[in-house]
Amino acid sequence: MNKVFFACITVLFTLSLSNAQSTLRTKHFNLDKGIALQGHDPVSYFNNGKALKGDKQFVASVEGISYYFSSATNKDLFLKSPKKFEPQYGGWCAYAMGSSGEKVEVDPETFKISNGKLYLFYHSWVNNTLTKWNKDESNLKPTADKNWTILFH
């Protein structure tokens, strides 16, 4: 009887932690109408070297975050290893996270893959933060990692 009781308590505890994690993610991730990456396919950045618009017929949600994919194949790849494809810093501008710790919108077509991670950047006709990131990535990245950890908890 005690084993069943402790198993039930463990399951309930795990579910509550999972729900809390999902809530935290949806609160802090850059979502447009509930969809990450402004509807772009996260796998396309890695496999196509560019941002492809996803299709709502190929949608998947992981820990409260929904993504669109350009194909069923990309959706399946993502679901096998979502952490591999999710953008860093919740999809907010990596440069802004490193320079000021702020959540700043991005241009989903301005990105960088570095060490197997996807970084997104703000880009307007007068300001491309990817260029600034590239000039000082060795200092900005550790600061961005630290700032995101502070914001996310």
Described by strand count, sense and barrel closure, the largest sheet is: 2 strands, antiparallel
Cα-to-Cα separation, first versus last residue: 37 Å
Radius of gyration, taken over Cα atoms and rounded to an integer in Å:
17 Å
SSE run: HEEHEEHHHEEH
Domain count, please report it: 2
What spatial form do the alpha-carbon principal axes imply?
A: globular
* Helical fraction: 40-55%
Low-pLDDT segments: 4-21
Structural class: alpha+beta
Number of beta-strand segments? 6
Count of helical regions: 6
**Major sheet: order of its strands?**
1-2
Residue share in β-strands: 15-25%
Overall pLDDT score:
88
Can you tell me about this structure?
It is a single chain. With 153 residues, this protein is an alpha+beta fold. It folds into two domains: 1-85, no CATH class; 87-153, no CATH class. Helix content is 50%, strand content 20%. Residues 4-21 have low confidence and may be disordered.
Highlighted features:
6 strands; 153 residues; two-stranded antiparallel sheet; alpha+beta; single chain
Outline:
The chain is α+β, with helices and mostly antiparallel strands.
Produce the secondary structure layout:
Layout: H1 2-28, E1 31-32, E2 35-36, H2 42-47, E3 55-62, E4 65-69, H3 72-80, H4 82-85, H5 94-99, E5 107-114, E6 117-121, H6 129-152
Antiparallel strand pairs: 1-2, 3-4, 5-6
